[in-house]
Amino acid sequence: MFNFSERRGPPTRGVDIYRIDFICEACDGAHQGIRVADGAGDMTFDQITLDGFMINLYVRHTGAAQSNVTLKNSRILNGIRQGILGGSPNMQILDNYFENNGGLRHIYDHTIYLSGDWKETGPEIPYNMVIRGNEIYKTSQVGGSCAGSAIVGHGYLNGIIVEENFIHEDTGTANRACFGIDFTPAHKDVEKIQNIVVRRNLISNMGGVSVWLGATRNSLIEDNVIIDQSLAHSRMGIYLKDFDEKGGYKNEDVTIRNNSVYFADSPRARFVQLDPGARGAVIANNAIYIGNAGDRGYCFRLNASSVSQMDNNLCLITGSAKDHWVSSVGTLAEWTAETGFDRDSIMGLNPDFKDPATLNLAPASDASPLVGAGAPGLASSSAMPACEARKGEWVGSCGPTPVRGTAPDIGAYQLNASG
Question: Per the confidence metrics, is the pTM higher than 0.85?
Answer without folding.
Answer: yes
